[in-house]
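Q: Please design a sequence for this.
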């Protein structure tokens, strides 16, 4: 039976296969990943090729100057591994450094915002080395960059999302945040000669980035961290008052960590440990275990109310504890235990919203992609530069747009996420997988900062509790509890397709509702791959709110 949520503007359906499937938020990246699978590459090879392509064609959301986090399932060993490739703050990154410059908080844009080492390339390198030895594969390192180099060198048509965010960030009236054309490197790379943004369908070439990708493809990841690329980035930062050093680049490593998990119905949900908010994503499901979600009926006021209230409970713990675990003890066992979930559930009033929570971080720009190959190996990968276009700094003629993740550090020494040298920042990024019978059942994730745990919960409940296909689950109307840029308090954003009577009932229960457009990318760009436990058919899904594609062969 076709569900009503399958009727979207795109009218897309789930691609199904017994072989490999790739889903990403850009059609070129999905095809780059699929090409690797066709050539005999494994799921990790495909993920790297797709992620490299996204770093070119989706720079508003991800670049090689950002961070990434991996969940990798090895079908041969039945092992799930987690790889943390987020960068640490520089050795000069201290609270006193920023206070001496008169900063009440770390600037969100500019050279002072780029205070953590980029981790993306190290993640690609470490994941590739692991997969080559543990999964096999016929694809070499250099081959992974072919599509990315082609698009950077010869150009690509600008997508709707890139055109939109380019226009938003070329605002000459917003000198503090949105006027990125004030930075020479950004202006030269991503805007036209007259400072105007590129429109949908216009060709954008990134020759400096193409040259850098060629170097990485030819010489390996070391070229980015200890070679000519690192030297040029650091020279530019030093010349403009930045703080990252060559030692910060050379010292950076991607690290294998233990995934965290929690049961949900007859499944087990896996996510990423701190320094990411994966704990919050799992806490929401742990709370929902105490409710008969299916009986609430999908799309009702009861459903949305419960999901939002569970999110609030999870975010209380997240904001109290989440930081670099090397700097603070985080009681994960207690936070994810059944008893804690029951206590959180008991505080939820189904008749009234809880509204005393402090304002939430407004946003983060990110990509999520998923891959399952013919052998059953699976990847859930999330990669980010934090704000749209990150710091706005394209450094040293390298074409590398640097992230501003470290601008989220606090300059309050007592804050759990306070700035310190060589520290990983609180990350909203959290790739996810849902297991059934000991194997991946749903590979899923999304971009969208505060929205990531909320959208993950939407996908899981709609698939597990309501029996929707992954595409139907992603197409269905979404919500976002949080705030947007310039807002001082939380609200509950609801897509316009949600019925008026549901909206009014949520207002009656005390939710500060704000209606937003149908299929708005405010809700993030989600994706999923479902593996049928009985037939092993893989169903891919991508988000009509983005420029994505689920592709299979």
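A: Design:
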């Amino acid at each position: 039976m076709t569900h009503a949520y399958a009727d979207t503007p795109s009218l897309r359906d789930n691609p199904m296969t017994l072989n490999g499937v790739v889903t990403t938020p850009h059609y070129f990246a999905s095809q780059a990943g699929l090409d690797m699978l066709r050539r005999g590459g494994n799921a990790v090879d495909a993920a790297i090729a797709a992620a490299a392509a996204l770093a070119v064609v989706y720079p508003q959301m991800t670049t090689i100057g950002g961070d990434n986090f991996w969940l990798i399932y090895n079908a041969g060993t039945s092992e799930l591994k987690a790889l943390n490739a987020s960068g640490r703050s520089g050795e000069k990154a201290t609270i006193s450094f920023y206070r001496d410059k008169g900063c009440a908080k770390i600037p969100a844009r500019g050279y002072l915002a780029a205070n953590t080492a980029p981790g993306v390339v190290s993640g690609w390198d470490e994941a590739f080395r692991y997969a080559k030895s543990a999964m096999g594969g016929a694809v070499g390192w250099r081959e992974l960059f072919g599509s990315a180099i082609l698009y950077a060198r010869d150009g690509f048509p600008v997508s709707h999302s890139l055109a939109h965010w380019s226009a938003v960030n070329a605002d000459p009236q917003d000198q503090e945040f949105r006027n990125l054309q004030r930075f020479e490197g950004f202006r030269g790379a991503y805007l036209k000669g007259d400072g105007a943004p590129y429109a949908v369908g216009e060709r954008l070439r990134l020759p400096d980035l193409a040259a850098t990708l060629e170097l990485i493809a030819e010489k390996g990841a070391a070229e980015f961290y200890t070679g000519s690329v690192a030297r040029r980035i650091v020279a530019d930062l030093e010349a403009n008052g930045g703080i990252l050093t060559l030692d910060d680049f050379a010292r950076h490593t991607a690290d294998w960590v233990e995934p965290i998990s929690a049961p949900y119905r007859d499944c087990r949900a896996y996510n990423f440990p701190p320094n990411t908010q994966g704990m919050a994503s799992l806490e929401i499901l742990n709370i929902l275990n105490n409710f008969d979600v299916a009986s609430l009926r999908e799309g009702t006021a009861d459903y949305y109310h419960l999901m939002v209230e569970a999110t609030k409970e999870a975010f209380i713990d997240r904001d109290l504890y989440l930081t670099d675990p090397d700097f603070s003890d985080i009681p994960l066992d207690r936070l994810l235990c059944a008893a804690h979930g029951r206590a959180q559930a008991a505080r939820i009033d189904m008749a009234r919203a809880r509204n005393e929570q402090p304002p939430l971080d407004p946003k983060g720009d990110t990509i999520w992609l998923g891959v399952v190959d013919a052998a059953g190996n699976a990847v859930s990968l999330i990669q980010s530069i934090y704000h749209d276009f990150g710091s706005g700094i394209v450094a040293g003629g390298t074409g590398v747009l640097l992230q501003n993740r470290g601008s989220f550090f606090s300059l309050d020494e007592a804050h759990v996420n306070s700035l310190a040298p060589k520290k990983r920042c609180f990350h909203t990024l959290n790739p996810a997988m849902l297991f059934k019978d000991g194997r991946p059942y749903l590979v899923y994730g999304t971009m969208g900062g505060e929205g990531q745990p909320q959208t993950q919960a939407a996908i899981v409940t709609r698939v597990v509790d309501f029996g929707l296909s992954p595409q139907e689950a992603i197409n269905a109307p979404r919500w976002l509890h949080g705030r947007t840029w310039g807002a001082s308090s939380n609200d509950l954003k609801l897509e316009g397709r949600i019925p008026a009577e549901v909206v009014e009932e949520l207002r009656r229960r005390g939710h500060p509702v704000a209606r937003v457009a149908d299929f708005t990318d405010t809700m993030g760009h989600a994706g999923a791959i479902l593996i049928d436990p009985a037939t092993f058919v893989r169903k891919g899904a991508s988000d009509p709110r983005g420029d994505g594609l689920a592709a299979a062969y």
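Q: Thanks. Anything notable?
A: The radius of gyration is 22 Å. The chain has a mean pLDDT of 92.
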